Amino acid sequence: MITRTDRSILGSWWWTVDRLTLAALLTLMVVGGLLSMAASPSVASQMNLDSFYFVRRHMSLIPLATAIMLVVSLLQPLQVRRLGVVVFALAVIGMILTLVIGDEIKGAKRWLNLPGFNMQPSEFVKPALIIVTAWMFVAYRKIQGFPGHLFAVAALLSVLVILALQPDFGMIVIISAVWFIQLFLAGLPFLWVLVGGVAALLAGTSAYYIFPHVAKRIDRFLDPTSGDRFGDRYQINQSLEAFSSGGALGVGPGEGVVKQHIPDVHSDFVFAVAGEEFGLVVCLLLLGIYAFIVFRVIVRVLKANNLFILLASTGLVAQFGLQAIINIASSIRLLPTKGMTLPLMSYGGSSLLATAVGMGMLLSLTRRDYTQVQGRS
To answer: With CB atoms counted within 10 Å of each terminal CB, which end of the chain scores lower, N or C?
Structure first.
């Protein structure tokens, strides 16, 4: 047992980390592993691969993701900031390389083919940009004459330009939304927020006319009769049918049939598998876990007398929650499909590992001061 008087790194971590949030995150990982076993074999068979090809890959990454999350959660805020800068620099370099030597999949160049692993650098830029943005906004407020806000804008624009070239409009939406949340919380002039909102509206409208795949997905979302055998509309229809057949308690583990008809069921539509095989009750519980993590973090950071922790933690949990909302809303036809994974549950090595880095940072930043904990013992 680790006593409250244990002043080691592990002892300090154990009594200051938010163990309820940690337990919720680990629960999502475990459920994600179960859903991978349910959804992945049919996808592998359709691709003429071994039935457990994706299952083995996902299961092998869960221990690594868990270790990354726990190790990062041991860091101090200054170390988290330094890690964010390093990851941001490496991720941007990786994103640039995808445009030159990256593999093109479904019309997008987002992946680097590494030995035994396809990496998507843009997944890692999400938590890193949040940390860099928080640091720059704080520096702007605290260091007279330091143009931190301009550096934050430059960092955002550099990422958005590369994402537009890949292209990855869904990632642009998530990153921009979180950045503006941080901008608002940083207390910068309201004119900035207003200009940013108008720019986002114009960018979204322009994307419809500039990027054919964006217009295609929106048109399919608005027109229920469109969509081919493996198109977005077809997948959404199958997803809705899965929720309908699952009912309140589901048809039972392994008994679902939707996974045999949706090409991206192990990634973009994994929530449909949960709906069919485990039912409405389990889906609501999963939604409750995501909501619990978001609100739990918000409550903790409101007590922090540190602007960097406020901006960074809020950004990290906002990105986590928004991505979950978009994925789930897409699977029940509340939003157009965006090819976005469900955090910690969908198949995807880059997504799982990058989320682990972000959640490790979040656990680190939301730790209580150790002397306060010891003082109550």
So the answer is: N
